[in-house]
Amino acid sequence: MTSDVFGLTSANRRMIADFLETLDDDQWAAPTLCEGWTVHHLAAHLVQPMLVGFGRFFLTALRYRGDTARTVDHFTRRLAARPRAELIALLREHAADRVDPPRVGPFGPFAETCIHLRDIARPLGLAADVPAEHWRLLLDHLTSPGVAPALVPPGRLDGLRLEATAFLTDSGPNTGSGPNTNSDHNTSPGHGTGWGPGAGALISGPLEALGLAVTGRRAALADLHGPGLATLQARL
């Protein structure tokens, strides 16, 4: 399974590099779903795990009194000083790097490729996305007991049940520039997959929206529905 995750992460990095190459100056300067970060910042962040080793990260974190978020922001902004062509080249060059960070493991970088692509594409109204199978695999992990708190804080999904009501019609990534295709009218219903206790309050919607909401993206809540939605919204 671990080798499969590494392979999927590598494929996603290459796909994201191709997608970033299609964006113009205004799009690179546009805000993302990550507060305070532009597309350029997120492109830099995506190469950070391959360029910044754990030892260097740990020593820098000491300067920020162990604040991981501030440490990540520090390295992201430093790397974002590089031109976009260089960041794209670095993402391709290091696409096959096997990064296994402490605490989050290989699912951390895999999750970032799935989620950050949509952090970029959603605000731009673009359809670029990873294959539906990647979201299924990621949601299996995000709802598991061993998920790292950095991905899903403890208690966020307590008493909630997730159900994917629609999957992407295209089994491969879509890097087109049309409207977001992750809404119900662009997917094939009837193949629901569920996560969580059977008696939990239901939240249903497209795979992509479930994955984004579970990891704290409030922008995805509008694409979800069900009696558990208000509870999740209050926890984000």
Automatic annotation (TrEMBL):
Superkingdom of origin: Bacteria
NCBIfam families: maleylpyruvate isomerase family mycothiol-dependent enzyme
Residue numbers spanned by region Disordered: 168-199
Pfam families for this protein: MDMPI_N
Comp. bias (Polar residues): 171-188
Recorded GO MF terms: metal ion binding
Domain Mycothiol-dependent maleylpyruvate isomerase metal-binding: 13-100
Organism expressing this protein natively: Actinoplanes friuliensis DSM 7358
Name of this protein: Mycothiol-dependent maleylpyruvate isomerase metal-binding domain-containing protein
